[in-house]
TrEMBL record:
Domain of life per record: Bacteria
InterPro entries noted in UniProt: CheY-like_superfamily (IPR011006), Sig_transdc_resp-reg_receiver (IPR001789)
Alphabetical keyword list: Phosphoprotein, Two-component regulatory system
Organism phylogeny: Bacteria, Pseudomonadati, Bacteroidota, Cytophagia, Cytophagales
Domain Response regulatory as annotated: residue spans: 3-121
Keyword Phosphoprotein: yes
Post-translational modification 4-aspartylphosphate, affected residues: 52
Annotated protein name in UniProt: Response regulator
Amino acid sequence: MKKIIIAEDSSVIQNLTKKILQIQNFSITAVKNGKEVLEKLNSEDYDLILMDINMPQMDGMECAKHIRGLSDPIKSQIPILAITGNAKNYSISDFKEVGINEYIPKPLNFDLLVDKVKMYTEDHD
């Protein structure tokens, strides 16, 4: 079973996303900010990170930079999908620069979300 971290400070979005992905047979760990993502990554392996951009303590951009800078070669390459209302008008190149693979706009289209998650967690043997 593929393991996903959802980092999202809105519990409504977090719970909804969690339910939808659990139905698709993903194992979900939910956290509220970037610092908690890094703590989880320290102790466990994950296949994908779904990350809100605007979060307290450490936002998604900063967290992505930290992840890409990790010394563990596997953890530093985990796919990161940003979820964002994009209030700060980041461009796709801003996201790429910090190592975010792709972003999904809010309000969330859950079909799109599931498609993207599956695309990034499929085994490419």
